[in-house]
Amino acid sequence: MIRSPGSARAGDHSVLQSKAMKHVRLLVLGEDLPQASLTLAETESFHPDSRAPEEQRLAPLVDSRYQNEYQKARTRLDKIAQVIPVPEPDLSEIRVVHLDELTEVNAWLGSAWEFCLEHQEGFRELDENARLLEEQQAALANFAELNVDLGALRADKRFLDLHVGVVPRENVSRLEGALGLTGHLLLKYMEREGNAHVVIVGPSEDGQSELRSLLSSAGFTAIPLPQGLDDSPETIQDDQRRERDRIERERADLHEEVETCAKEMHAKLVRASTVLALAEPFVSLDPAIRGVGYLASIDGWVPAKALPDLERRLDASLQNPFSLESRKPREDERPLVPTVPVRNRLLQPFAMLVKQYGIPRYGEIDPTLLFTITFLLMFGTMFGDVGHGAVLGLLAWLFRKKLGRFYIFGVLAGLSSIFFGVLFGSVFGYKELLPAVWMSPLYNPILMLQLALGWGVLFLSLACVLTIYNRFAIREPMAAIFGPHGVVNLIFYLGLVWGAVSLAMTGAFGAIPAGLVIAALGALAAYNWGHMQAPIGEKILVVLIETLETVLGYLSNTLSFLRVAAFSINHVALMIAVLTLAGMMGTVGSILMIIFGNIFVMVLEAVIVTIQVMRLQYFEGFSRYFSADGREFTPLRLRRKPRAA
Amino acid sequence: MSSAAKNAYLNTRVAAKATQLIGLKNVKQLSQMSPHELCQHIGLGDLLDEPGSVRSKSRAVEQGLIQVLLADLAVLVRPMSPEERGLVLAWARKYALFNLKTLLRGKIRQLDQQEIRENLYDLPPQVRLSNEDLFRTESAVELLRVLESGPLSLLARQAREIYEKRQEAFALEAAIDQRYYSELARRVTRLGDPKADRQMRSLIGSLVDRANILWLLRFRFAYGLPPSETFYQLVPSPNLMYRQRLLDLVSLENQAQVIAGLPEPLRSLLADADNLMESQRRLSQYCYGIARDVLRHGHSGVARAMAYLILREIDLQLTFTLIQSRLLNLPAAYVDLALGLSPAICAHNWPDAA
Questions:
Q1: Of B154, B162, B236, the CB nearest to A217
Q2: Which CATH number fits domain A151-224: 3.30.70.2750, 3.40.50.720, 3.40.50.300, 2.60.120.1440?
Q3: Same domain flag for B132 and B167
Q4: What interface predicted TM-score (ipTM) does this complex get?
Q5: Tens digits of per-residue pLDDT, A542-581?
Q6: What is the pTM of this model?
Q7: Phi, psi of A270 (to 5 degrees)
Q8: Between chains, do A68 and B114 touch, taking CB under 8 Å as contact?
Q9: What is the mean pLDDT of residues A470-485?
Q10: Per the CB < 8 Å rule, is A179 touching B175?
């Protein structure tokens, strides 16, 4: 078994803090490059850095034969996988693949692809024959309504040139015009799917090659008229049935032949798949490899904790001496340093949703844990019902194979709904089944709205704190203090909240909060003024508008959280409506109303609540503290499964 | 957005963008600029400062100019209705067809993959084919088979059948070109707005008319195809070269008769053109004139946007000609010929012209 230390260790770091990375430069002799690539891939902790090096003498590798052979072979194997199943590579032995072996495998894959192509063409030909047979049937059915001697159509005619066939519908008009120039007539008697059935009649004179060329350009396909057209319909139908059976037999034979050959090729396909899997790291690494003389240099990023293991493995696998230099990332490199994603199994689906927005920049807080907690809290509050939560969680569990890792998202969301359902005392909308541990949202909507506002204040303050931390982490202290959602913004916001609470409770805004708000706005205005290069009139206008925007922005963003309370009240109200309607109906109607009403509410609210929570997370949270322009850590690794067809 | 609002928006955007058009008359002024200044002027920055051969620089400039055109296109198609957008994108899809032809030629001649890749244009998703899937193929027939499973299935099927029967690149490429213009002619007749319909017919019709006349002269008299097959390769136009006119013209015996049989203003335009290159130059100027007319006096936002794109494309082609001629140090006479500023002459007379 091959160890994957990189992935195993990725959980070592805090789920909030991105893992410390180091920039490494590996110097090896050219002959050791393939082995070095394999070792780096085995550790799964090396993220290639393909930037051009500052040293002018280091140049990209000139010899690209290995890469070309690999690309051709990989393309062929992927195409073959669309026709016959390609087995997984056998990676029990990790070894270097040399160019000769790769060339040989590529050549074999070329012949294997030719075989597949031939059989694909065979299947297509059978499809075409089956299609023509159908067209023939349709044509004969159409001719059956005419009072003409069909047998005469087959016979050679001395003065008359006659063709029966199909032509793509959109070519008919042009073909008709062109045939007119050769003295032929075109009669369209039927249209099926994209084709028109036509009869072409004209004088049987010279100019046949011109006609043939024209028909070929127009995509005309002659329909073979069967022998014995003057036989009974039953005889002709029997002939056609036999022809259809023959096509099906040939198709089955072809399938069998492909399966037999696939079995015969199995061992060679395993070898090809293995060789390509072993050759891939060297090819993937190519953009990061630079060389001078016999020496090759590979640059990349490695998690700091994985470095000793990497060095030990290189030491064990490389025959010649090597040098592994490492250093901390420079400040100017920070946007280029990859961030190791969260690997925690429970957080995986939430990490996927975070990734939809972007990757955290190196050094920034990874928002996945915070996102998970706040998402579940808001989802449960807005969709609190024991019954609905249980159904949601159960469905996610039952469909876990189809949902993949995402089923955890459904289960946790369901559990959150159950938890808040217990607090609110709601089971499928019924209040009587479970006494509320706390209270139903509808009993005190004002309190719910106040709590939602409080939650909003907490959420936005936390977002500002994270923004401040992230800016300090990436060495931007001025932006952390004066920038959007920085220290001054937070002071302003907390002052505003303090004043608003004071106003609501005592009727006065208060001198200290007012002082904080004015001082913070003044500091922001002064900072903006100092950083603007514009005429004085424009400066005044911009500073005024920006200050006003800060005030309005925080106000509206806080109010945005009222939706958390609104949806929790909405859920209760909708369920009351369903139960009231059910109460107005007979027994059967009532049962149906309760079932379908619950399904309706579940589907509608699960979707809307998810969208609303995502909106709050993305726009009120991420847009403040998450720059989302980082790079994901994608280490070099061995491909253990064939590419999906 | 309502129809009136869309029209107003498009007209405003077109009017703003039209200020950057150069035009055939002003191209002489541009020829005074250095290649670097030309690149700056067209918005390509310091593209020529990158190290590389003349060929790679020329290629980078060409690619950059196409990106400039398609960036304009992406902005202009946004407010259009699906039919209008479909027509404008169908016009721009010629670049995808250039790529397709490059791939086909490369596969037929069994060129190295890298060489083929270097000659492909990098296009935005709206107009590009799935190049990677096509690129993975190993022969022209396999390529066309892959293409059959995509949006160009009809074209690909027919092209493959023609290629399998006749094994010649000419038939294949003629089928691709023919389909391209047929698609334009078909889409223009489907526009719902009568105002846009009339102006677009004139605009797209002029492009189809130009292609028809050149193909007719080339197929009938240079390649010696019979009237029936020549007619089959042509595209009935929504403008002057409609079906019956094409039927009448292909039966004529020589080039002079064909030109005499053309409708006005095409007849006067081509009356004394003594070679196909000159006919092509004059027909291009005819299309240019119509596009300029629609841009200046048209009312439909879509038609004006289309006219702008056609004129912008001509501008970018002229710029590319100028930059390339500078990179290759061509004599001024050649440059004038290439820009279409002087009457076209046959290639073997070029040394005399220089």
A1: B162
A2: 3.30.70.2750
A3: yes
A4: 0.80
A5: 888 888 888 888 999 999 999 999 999 999 999 999 999 9
A6: 0.69
A7: -60, -45
A8: yes
A9: 88
A10: no
